[in-house]
Amino acid sequence: MKVIEQRLPREFDKSFTVFCEKGNFFPCPWHHHPEFEFVLVTKSTGRRMVGDHIDFFEEGDLVFLGPWLPHVWVNDPEYLYGKSNRKAEAIVIHFTENFLGDRFLSIPETEPFKKVMDIANRGMVIKGQTKNEINVMLERMLSQSGLQRIASMITIFDILSHSSEYELLASPTFELNSKSASSSNLNKINEYIMRNFHNDISLPEIASIANMALTTFCNFFKENYRVTFVEYLTAVRIGHACKILAEQDLNIVQTAYECGYNNLANFNRQFRKLKGMTPSEYRKTIAS
């Protein structure tokens, strides 16, 4: 699919954009943009695609996206064909990394949120009490202006900074413009994984690449990536499989082999676990 670059006009007296999307359905195509984005669906149902992740959405669904991450929300057929007696509606916020000034993210107090911004490059669906609290604030922001609106944004940043109630969406191979603040060890680890994920990579092997003891490496990886090494490697492999299924004509067995799986049953199991569908179903969904 060809991704469309979209830009939203910003009011000259506002540092970021807050608006309510209303209509029979959500009209945006598969697109990306340089801004961070919150999307709260307040009415309608359907499917959303973020990077290589496909899932259902319903009312109350809240997602936080990093810049340049392709995405689209597709309403269910009754909305698309005008058969629903309700409108589709969502609250959308766009903001740039420096919308509060070039030095805002350099102050010590923002360090926890900078980590959230890094992982938002894969897209985050917010859940639980965190979602409930942020949804209320987003709805209030439609009628706020000035310092009230900025204060609400900073409160939302603080809530996300201290929450683990989220699920990452796109696989690591879709992660764009990540700006991790940690040492070159992360770049070294990530480069090695991306070059060798189709082969077996053992924990001792990757720990030696990082020049760390095994326990130190496991703790370092979990702290920086929010998942274990094995979970991350699986996400990379399945993400690459999604790219193959969407863009190439390889069969499922060939796809599994290209992604480092010699066991088709294990490949199918891991794919369903991460994507909620089989590889064949994923290919059909993309084609449709």
Could you please describe the fold and organization of this structure?
The radius of gyration is 20 Å and the shape is globular. Mean pLDDT is 88; it is low at 176-182. The protein has 11 helices and 11 strands. α2 packs across α4 (146-161) and α8 (229-247) crosses α11 (279-287). The chain is an alpha+beta fold and 288 residues long. β5 and β6 form a beta hairpin. The longest helix has 19 residues, at 229-247. The protein folds into 2 domains: 4-172, Regulatory protein AraC (Jelly Rolls); 182-287, Orthogonal Bundle (Arc Repressor Mutant, subunit A). It has helices spanning 77-80, 111-119, 128-141, 146-161, 184-196, 203-209, 214-225, 229-247, 252-258, 264-275, 279-287, and strands spanning 4-5, 17-23, 31-32, 36-43, 46-50, 53-57, 62-65, 71-75, 88-95, 124-126, 166-168. 42% of the residues lie in helices and 18% in strands. It has a 6-stranded antiparallel β-sheet with strand order 2-9-4-7-10-11, covered by helices on one side.
Task: Summarize the helices and strands and which ones pair or pack.
Elements: E1 4-5, E2 17-23, E3 31-32, E4 36-43, E5 46-50, E6 53-57, E7 62-65, E8 71-75, H1 77-80, E9 88-95, H2 111-119, E10 124-126, H3 128-141, H4 146-161, E11 166-168, H5 184-196, H6 203-209, H7 214-225, H8 229-247, H9 252-258, H10 264-275, H11 279-287
Parallel strand pairs: 1-3
Antiparallel strand pairs: 2-9, 4-7, 4-9, 5-6, 5-8, 7-10, 10-11
Helix pairs in contact: 2-4, 3-4, 6-7, 8-11
